């Protein structure tokens, strides 16, 4: 599985051995991978002495007693146990990375909002200093809800590592490539792909080339899973084989290093004398994963009407209330529109869930203008929304022949919790003050006749 001819540049730069590039296919599989032969124990987890003098350690992603079909844990065989990767903690301030509850009395979250892309700053920003929280929802203390962020990264983390005890992170790049060097392997990520970084996983983020910008959904609640397909059956939407988990890779780097931990909405630093990315081999089902959105197989209307957008769900994180997600990650990508006698764009809508959208590239069918790549919009709980006048007229008067929606990829983080704007989102980010004007020119077409006034 490991291609030994492909020792990564990261390995050579670190002057160490056995960082292998490569991925294993599947979602939630029980994987096993080793960067050195024989590093994994055979048929057991805790031998009296591990091979290579490694320490055995379990990373528990669910409670020990979680039902077996949800139980997730990974056994790591590492140079030092993780307790050697932390010391005493000091609190640090990352003022732009906010957690719920975050209700600013000077900010009005009730409204339909849209933003232009947040531009890169002049200063050098890493994954940690470049995270800009846009909205928060729920409560990080009780592990429900989420936050949405924009990341603006212009610098790699140097001898610096991070993990979030609060959340798993769903990363949606929009511009530029990133390398996530994690305890369990290396993920290279580019636009049109997504990655999930599990709660508690230590990693460092490097720039591969130019500046990087994208979106993050920070999930405080239960992990993302694939949605049930119901009558759709065993195929289509996101298929398990298209998810990729990295093979084992480790660093043996004895340099002074900073570890930053997000815990209960607060940030802490601790200093150690080595890299914590020292897992030589691991087995289990709690691991980072990436997915190419171009492999998402959309299913939709083939005769009439427009299904609910849940038909485009890629991942869902449950809330404990059946069918009511803590977060759904929904993808609007290229597809054919064929419905007869049908208003084809998303219909007008008022929703108990709150909907945060981002544009990865191209043009979104309900908003041909203004919702641009890198931009975001928020249609909060019970706030009506729908196509703007241009989209309405085009859809109402257009010839209903089969048509391809091309060059389009947008997504939605949809949550059962109302989303609160941060002060950054309300006052510093490029908010479009005129967004709600997009519905101004919708006409009254009711004139008392069954035909209506379509002039
Ligand atoms: Fe909606």
UniProtKB/TrEMBL annotation:
Gene3D superfamilies noted in UniProt: Jelly Rolls
One of the GO BP terms on file: L-tyrosine catabolic process
UniProt keywords, alphabetically: Dioxygenase, Iron, Metal-binding, Oxidoreductase, Phenylalanine catabolism, Tyrosine catabolism
EC number, as in UniProt: 1.13.11.5
Residues annotated for Fe cation binding in this entry: 349, 355, 385
Cofactor(s) it depends on: Fe cation
Binding site for homogentisate: 364, 385
Catalytic residues identified in the record: 306 (proton acceptor)
Keyword Iron attributed: yes
UniProt domain Homogentisate 1,2-dioxygenase N-terminal: residue ranges: 23-293
Any one cellular-component term (Gene Ontology): cytoplasm
Record GO terms (molecular function): homogentisate 1,2-dioxygenase activity; metal ion binding
Enzyme type, top EC level: oxidoreductase
Domain Homogentisate 1,2-dioxygenase C-terminal: 295-446
Alphabetized InterPro entries for the sequence: HgmA_C, HgmA_N, Homogentis_dOase, RmlC-like_jellyroll, RmlC_Cupin_sf
Protein's UniProt keywords contain Ribonucleoprotein: no
SUPFAM superfamilies, per the entry: RmlC-like cupins (SSF51182)
Pfam entry (one): HgmA_C
Sequence similarity: Belongs to the homogentisate dioxygenase family.
Protein name: Homogentisate 1,2-dioxygenase
Organism: Alloyangia mangrovi
